[in-house]
Specification:
This protein has 227 residues and is an alpha+beta fold. 16% of the residues lie in helices and 37% in strands. The protein contains 4 helices and 14 strands. It comes from Rhodovulum steppense.
């Protein structure tokens, strides 16, 4: 059975790259019973205070996508019942897990990103640890922990270069120079370029327009990137 693995990564040339070798890999001896993979999207104009007066319903406008999140719990065994753990204590397993996902890297001045993989069922997830909670559930008479479970939460990790490539940025993030045609209006052009007709006042100011209600045909207007 494929085992869940957490692999230490480094950021090199503005890309997240996994580090090879057993010292950089934590392999779960007991796979999680389940895991959660969360996605989120934020929209403007949906809160009570931001709704236009007189509108029957808000018109949500995309703002950004939240970082993905992943949560799961790993069970650790030091009783010797589980194969391949008879010589590995719970303490040693937790120490290695902590070194990979939690410990501060003096070279980068932050904990390392990691790659989580689990056979064919889980698409490789690159993330950074946000929380780790360990519960000890069984002890030897001398007080040594024999079983424990570690609840892990990760926030999706990426670099600026990877984010720009994956987003496949298009018109809202490029500067446009538009030649006005007969019948064009500023709200209409803003809707076409930004998918937001409400940007017309900003564009009027940027182009030093004295009157935005009537546009002269053949006028060149700049539409820069806007957030």
């Amino acid at each position: 059975m494929a085992k869940l693995k957490i692999i230490r990564c480094k950021i090199q040339n503005d890309q997240i790259r996994e580090q090879r070798g057993a010292a950089n890999t934590f392999e779960a001896t007991i796979n999680p019973e389940s895991y959660s993979h969360k996605f989120g999207i934020n929209y403007s104009g949906t809160t009570r205070g931001s709704r236009p007066v007189g509108k029957a319903a808000p018109v949500p406008k995309f703002e950004n996508a939240e970082s993905e999140r992943m949560d799961f719990t790993i069970h650790l065994d030091g009783t010797g019942v589980v194969p391949d753990t008879d010589k590995t204590t719970v303490g040693a397993q937790l120490q290695k897990l902590r070194e990979i996902v939690y410990d501060y890297d003096g070279d980068t001045h932050e904990p390392n990103p990691v790659k989580v993989v689990w056979g064919r069922g889980l698409e490789a997830f690159f993330g950074r640890l946000t929380s780790m909670s360990v519960d000890y559930t069984l002890f030897h008479p001398d007080g040594t922990a024999l079983r424990a479970k570690a609840a892990l939460s990760f926030l999706g990790a990426t670099t600026a270069a990877e984010e720009a490539r994956d987003a496949a940025r298009n018109s809202p993030d490029l500067t446009h120079v538009v030649r006005v045609r007969e019948g064009d209006t500023l709200p209409l052009l803003c809707q076409q370029i930004y998918n937001d007709a409400g940007r017309y006042l900003e564009i009027a100011r940027l182009n030093d327009l004295d009157c935005f209600r009537v546009l002269e045909p053949n006028t060149l207007l700049r539409f820069p990137p806007m957030r």
